[in-house]
Design brief:
41% helix, mainly alpha, 98 residues
């Protein structure tokens, strides 16, 4: 068989399998708790890298095996609770007479 015939046969089989799977999925009914659990699982999976505040993420390193500190972090003084604010006023440019 030539490659174009093989490609056509494979496309036909894939489309047939997808259409049968779609018909089967239309008849499938799932209970509400399943959707609630699936939504919770998706939200946890999508925010997996942001779990810094959860208690199960508290990893205690021994003093000798402490993770390295990134040099991009800005050190703050103990009295300074928040970073300094930068504020300025934006003014319209003055029109110059010609």
């Amino acid at each position: 068989m030539s490659s174009s015939v093989q490609f056509g046969l494979i496309c036909f089989l894939v489309f047939f399998a997808l259409s049968q799977a779609f018909q089967w999925a239309q008849e499938l009914t799932l209970p509400l708790p399943f959707f609630i659990l699936a939504g919770a699982a998706l939200s946890i999976a999508s925010n997996f890298d942001r779990r810094a505040g959860f208690p199960f993420n508290l990893i205690h390193f021994p003093k000798s095996e402490a993770p390295p500190v990134e040099p991009t972090m800005i050190a703050q003084s103990p009295t300074q609770k928040f970073p300094r604010e930068v504020s300025f006023t934006i003014r319209k440019p003055e029109k110059q007479d010609q």
